[in-house]
Specification:
The protein is α/β, with parallel strands linked by helices and 222 residues long. The chain has one domain: TIM Barrel, CATH 3.20.20. It contains 11 helices and 8 strands. Helix 4 (68-81) packs across helix 5 and helix 6 (117-126) packs parallel to helix 8 (146-159). The termini are far apart. It binds erythose-4-phosphate (E4P). The site of erythose-4-phosphate has 10 residues, from strand 7.
Amino acid sequence: MQFFLDSAITSEIEYALDTFNIDGITTNPRHVQVSGKPFLSVIREIARLVEGTEKTVSVEVNPHFMTYAEMLPEAEKLAAISPNFVIKLQCVEPAFKVIEALAKKDIRTNCTLIFSPMQALQAMRSGAYFISPFIGWKEANGEDVQNFIDDIVTIRDNYDFDSEIIVAAVRNARQIVDMAVLGADIVTAGLSVYQEGVQHPYTVDGIQRFTKFWDQTPYDEA
Ligand code: E4P
């Protein structure tokens, strides 16, 4: 399973690349706003961090754009900035034709804000490179997310669609493991989710115990 970082904060991205060797980055308008930098500046900075690698950076088209005529040129403009960019388009009717048109030009897309298997199916039929079903928002609303993702994985495999499934809005390690069991390709989460996920109180306890024994034992030279 690939781990993506969901962030537009360059220091976090650098840390996650270095420490977790994250496989890609996803941004959205909230992350860009939180970065405190203008949109184009920050996505260019992020592009530089992954330059020369295969790691993707998902960048989102202006969410006001709701027509083919608005979305397509903006998507092409963003794609021209970096070969690492995958263009994020909201899952709305006009986006499907944009996704198809971009696929024909070898521009990769990430169909985002997916909350039902039907939306996922249509995005995959259109040729989305990534699809992003959000689980955190659904789970916070008491909705089942296991069947949601299981259905999407089954549909993708039944029809051999090329789209990769990025499970998004992931909030904790339990969700990551659940999604790995279901066979989702990728998860995207904030840095703290990965940091908390690799911690365990028994590990901390074990380090304390072993340190005590270590300190009672001579090291010696061969
Ligand atoms: C995915 O690509 C989105 O950026 C992300 O997971 C959205 O979730 P959040 O803003 O609720 O964390």
